[in-house]
Each structure stands twice: as structure tokens, then as C-alpha cells.
Amino acid sequence: MISRITGKISEKGVNCLVLDLDGIGYDVFIPACVMQRIDESCAEDGRITLLTYHYYQVEQAKSVPVLIGFLSQVEKDFFEIFITVSGIGPRAALKALNKPISLIARAIDEGDLFFLKSLPGIGEQRAKEIVAKLQNKVGKFGLIQDRNMQLKVSSKDISEEALDVLLQLGYKRSEALSMIKKATESNTQAGTTEELLNLVYKQKRLK
Questions:
Q1: Which end of the chain is more exposed for a tag (fewer CB within 10 A), N or C?
Q2: What is the CA angle 14-59-36, rounded to 5?
Q3: Surface-to-core class of residue 25, CB atoms within 10 Å of its CB (0-12 exposed, 13-18 middle, 19+ buried)
Q4: Which residues contact 98 (CB under 8 A, 6 or more apart)?
Q5: Burial (CB count <10 Å: 0-12, 13-18, 19+), residue 96
Q6: What is residue 170's DSSP assignment?
Q7: What's the pTM?
Q8: Residue 147 confidence (pLDDT) above 90
């Protein structure tokens, strides 16, 4: 099994990289929550090291090897726990993990079905199954504070990205803007989108 791969990025798609290893190109699929930090994790020559989840996907009587890449062991560990939920295989998890892992983990522990249903491919029943299987088992992932796992953007961009997330979760624009304003007024130390959203959710729970 391939557990780690280092190569130069020769192609970059929406959710896939092609890594060149001495003239051989390897397709490596990347969850959106990881892809957003790929560029800042590359060396100057374009080389990058990824931890990989390696499995074989059966398609019409043939077995196809698939690599899914991560920048840290924490990300890989969460992925492997996430796919223990019935009905969520590697491909489904690859699609679903499009928000910061810490936010997904906290939503699971808090039984926040509304948030979980906002993940691509996750409906009402699947969200309930995720909570039933993983609640109280992923708390450590919700405490991720490593600055390398966070987005480094300006305060304006942070607010705009937080607004986009809240709108995707079904909040009205006026309500989302009000929540963000209250969170920033109460705490000006939020340096990432994730931290700002955590402040918003905290205020929401205190109501």
C-alpha cells in the first residue's frame, strides 16, 4: 500500500493533482478542505509530500487503484474515521469534506444536522447516521488550532468567506451579516475564517 508520496505538481484540477515522480504521473484525489492549502504547502520547485489513503475501487469486474492525499496525519485520521459510517465510502467522503475538519467534527459532536446536510452528498438520513456513529468520538478534531490548518486571509476576506458559509447553510443574508457583526464586535482577535465562524456558532449557542 502507498502511504506517502512526494512529487512535483504537473497538473491541478478541482479535486485532483497529477504528481510527477521521475517522469511517471500519479493521480492523487484531494478533499476540498485540503486542496485550499495545497499551494502554500508546495516547495519552491513545485514539489509536495502527501500522506495517502490507498484503496482499490471495483468497477465492472476490474479493480482500479485510487490515491487520496492529505497534508497531515490529522486530516487522514479524520477521513478514515468518517468512512466508517455506513454508506460513506472513500469517494463519498472525498466529496463531502469541503469545509474545515474542525467545523465538521464540532457539528458531529453537537448533533448539528443542519450543518452536516450542507456537506455535498449528505442528506437528512446520512447526517443522522454520521451523528449516531461518530458523536463523542471526534472531539479531538474539533480542537484543531494549528495555524497551518487555517486560512491566512485579510479581515475583509474572512468576513466574506464566513458570509458565504452561512448563506450556504441557509441563513438569510441580513441575519448572517448581523451574526458576523456581533461576533467581530465581541472579539477582534479572529484571524481566520474558521475562528470567526466558531465565534458565530458560540454566540448562537448562548442565545
A1: C
A2: 15
A3: middle
A4: 31, 32, 33, 119, 120
A5: buried
A6: T
A7: 0.69
A8: no
